[in-house]
Amino acid sequence: AGPGQAAMYAGLQELGVANGEDLKETLTNCTEPLKAIEQFQTENGVLLPSLQSALPFLDLHGTPRLEFHQSVFDELREKLLERVSAIALEGKVEERYKKLEDLLEKSFSLVKMPSIQPVVMCVMKHLPKVPEKKLKLVMADKDLYKACAVEVKRQIWQDNQALFGDEVSPLLKQYILEKENILFSNDISVLHNFFSPSPKTRRQGEVVQKLTQMIGKNVKLYDMVLQFLRTLFLRTRNVHYCTLRAELLMSLHDLEISEICTVDPCHKFTWCLDACIREKFVDNKRARELQGFLDGVKKGQEQVLGDLSMILCDPFAINTLALSTIRHLQDLVGQDTLPRESPDLLLLLRMLSLGQGAWDMIDSQVFKEPKMEAELITKFLPMLMSFVVDDHTFNVDQKLPSEEKGPIPYPSTIPEAFTKFLQENRIACEIGLYYILHITKQRNKNAFLRLLPALVETFSDLAFSDIFLHLLTGNLTLLGDEFALEEFCTSLFDGFFLTACSRKENVHRHVLRLLLHLHHKVAPAKLESLQKTLEPTKQSGEAVKELYNQLTEKLELRKPSPAEVTETPSMELPLPTVPTPASR
After folding, report:
1. When comparing pLDDT for 576 and 543, which is higher?
2. pTM of this prediction?
3. Could you give the C-alpha distances from 375 to 323, 425, 427, in angstroms and in order?
């Protein structure tokens, strides 16, 4: 018998049941082998008197004894598995677990026997507390560990953080990769972007579902996952870990796992915010609720602010708060009200501020709300409102009959203070960027070109972050026709994108994504120079090279073949120069 055979009989001897080794020994030391085999069969066969006469009948039909025993065995195993599951549900709690523990004690020595293993695993799965000694044996054996149910693994994990970390780590990597793939996706659209999927849809994602299943109702494992997410967020500053923190809690909420939801102090806040994210707007009723949670943080419980700030740092939360802020500012213009007079707006800023301060708070372990700079409310937001007013004024002017003095030009300068705010104040920068996304979505080319220069230098380079560039490239598709104008392209590419392309690989990728989508609209001379400028260097990553090759292929396909050019000589005649409206 080879090692495979040995595994088949693993543990039988301990139970006093003869196995293949015993038969081998019997046959080696006997004088009449056939008699010895017969005796072995009688001693170890199915001990039913009525069966003895039936077996020769099977022999006549040429059915091997192995086949018969195998089918009896399979049938019995199924019955036993059903019985174990039934025991786990019947009678008093102590009694049923006592029965299962006795059964585990008797059967555990056969755990490595493939045919019996499912039964042993089933018994362990139904035991809320598998004896420590058995768990250690399972943990020490790779194959057994792999084979046991998640219910058993949870019991192992809760006392082995490193092992649990090894299981969770690849899932977290996969999650971040999935998010980045969406941000860099070649499909650029204003309708379907990073923030399009609803929270409920996102929670159905593979990673969230797997983690939810791994945690079950185990608070200790849930806490461990949160600890991993906090640590990784601190180490990498990657905000997608904050999204996962909220998604995981809400996934457990969907399953009504009260054991965990009731002990997570962020549960109700996250639930309320989740509803706002679904609507992409914070309405007055929910604003009151959210404010109640923030105001309700008691002395001595400030640490919960660390968790709340992480929930608010989730890009989906920031997106909702920022969009709501822009909407509020527009409403205030219509109401002739200043930002400082709007409690709803002040609450949005308070939550933005808490979310944006998450990393610093968790890093410093100083749990108090960040102080809001008065100038943000008294200077910066009124300035944004003045831009909204400029647009209204310009639009009205366009409609008025023009006097001798000619049409009034669109304001082209930006207040120096606006640029300074974007460079020095994180919240101002976030709101400023969302305002720029807003005007781009409205196809407001004038306002876009006016404010674009302020994006070259922003607080911690936020204007070159993947989320902003992902949204901006999507919104720019609405201004597609403007790309035919050299002036527009120069402002956008030379004045903004190319200032960071060489030092930031991600910007290089986003520009190539945009050109892959809009190359047919770009002024030909500009496209040619962009193609040269954007050529990857030796240091460029694979993603940039791949995108560049795709773009080159597309441009090659657009070039007319030499044959076509010679057939249409009329095009080669010098054309009279007609002044275009733009150059007048």
Report:
1. 543
2. 0.84
3. 21, 10, 11
